[in-house]
Amino acid sequence: MASSSPPGTVVHNRLLGFLIWQSIPSTVIFFIFKTLSSTISSTSHSTVKPPFPFAPSVFAFITFLTFHLSQLLFSFSLSLISSPHPHRLASPLQLALGLIRFLFVPGGSELSESPESRVRAKLSIGFLLFLAAVAVSGFVAMVSVCVKFGDGVGVIGAVGFRGFVMGLLYGLYYVYYRRWVFEFPIIQRPPFFSFKMGLPSAITRSLKLSCLASLFSAFLVVFLPHQLQNQATIGKVIAEQIIFYIGSFLVFLCWEISHHLHQVLHTKRFVFAPPKGSAAAETNPSEHLLSALEESSPNSLLQYLAYLDLYMVCENNVDTWRRAAFFEESGETYKRVIYVCLRPLEQLASKLGEGLESSVEKSSQISNQLLSPTDQRLDPKYSEPLNNFQLYAWCAWTAASLTTCSHREDRFGVAQLSGSNASVISTLISCLLAVESYMGKKTSLQSAQHFMGSTGFKLRTSSVGNIGMGKKRAGPLHSKAYAIADVLRNSIYHIVSTFHDQMASSAKKGLLEKDWIISDKPPFGTRELLVQKLHLFLDFRAS
Question: What GO biological process terms are annotated to this protein in UniProt (predicted)?
């Protein structure tokens, strides 16, 4: 069902909805904990006389309010760092040098820092703010759930300090394991079922984290013996440790549920289309989607949601009326859709090509010094785009599915007449060659010794094929390169299987290069190399 809300407000509305929904499980868990803690602490009654009859009730309301404020702080801090793209952060040394230049060198930050460095510095500052917010949230939350009416300032400080350290360690754990990166599910389910499926893992992880927090608390009690002097009985000490364990489990569970709910609500598909039957749906139903794809910020959540919606329309038999609108008579809509799909793949191929060229030049210099070229590694700034696997998979499958659908749904032949089919095949093969070269696979198909790179520089196949082979096979980027290559290969086979008869006929007539390969220079490799690779796909021998 199409949505009537403006595409620009999608992220804002989802954040507001998340902040509202996260309060429901927090409230339920808070009341359950208070019931359990009152049962555990019933063995030792407080001897503090309340200053007025309603003091305990007021204290309970204040603790309930502060607990929700701590959860709201944690939930809002997630928006500071959450992103569908795993950004590269600035190192502490770079942050320190940037701060020194900003404070002591007039205009130094503008002259010596690139825009990319400033972006990384801002992201790093956002992560530091997140760590501070989680630590404060842990302090307030633990005080709210573990401190009883009548406890002194010393107890509040001890419990708050434990909560502060607990929150700080959880924030470091959250950042280190990149849990702030949105992971879009393979199957789009209703939010309730997606939320329910993540509860067991949230409970399990909370139990493990609360055990570690309890062990840390026990060490604090051992190394801070002055706190034991204020305890009346050993039984009371044990009861307080049990309450701390349950309280830490409560806080971790609320954080884990908030994280899971944040993922579910923000990765849900949004339909970038006017309501079916409206005037806009009859005239130009694709404008909302194309505007979001073309005008949104690169690697933003809005852009990812737009690519997800485009992928769902082209890959599945849902909203077929929207896919039919891509094949309108002028062909402009179809060319715009294909362009936004191929643009990220072209950028990936060009970026890897530049990195491979620079690595070949460095290895040539080192080989003159009698060092092995296999010790060279690709510059991280060139291999960093491989982290964007989800976007490349959507783009490749969308372009392949739309090309395949054009075989039976394109009444006006805009896909073939506009040259989009040749652009899709050429870009997919060129990107596959770039990724395979990065993985160390030889790109020469007929014992050729050279091929042209992305800037026209002649790359020696033996050198390109050996770059980083000894150090990248087991790395995370190398595994992502394998995944991207697999997606690209399957996408090409998807098109070849549909148009196999036409391609075979063109190959017999010697027109395969003219009909299915672009006349311009590809992002990576040469036209001859692309034709040879396409022949392998036609023979189902490409692997």
Answer: mRNA transport; nuclear pore organization; protein transport
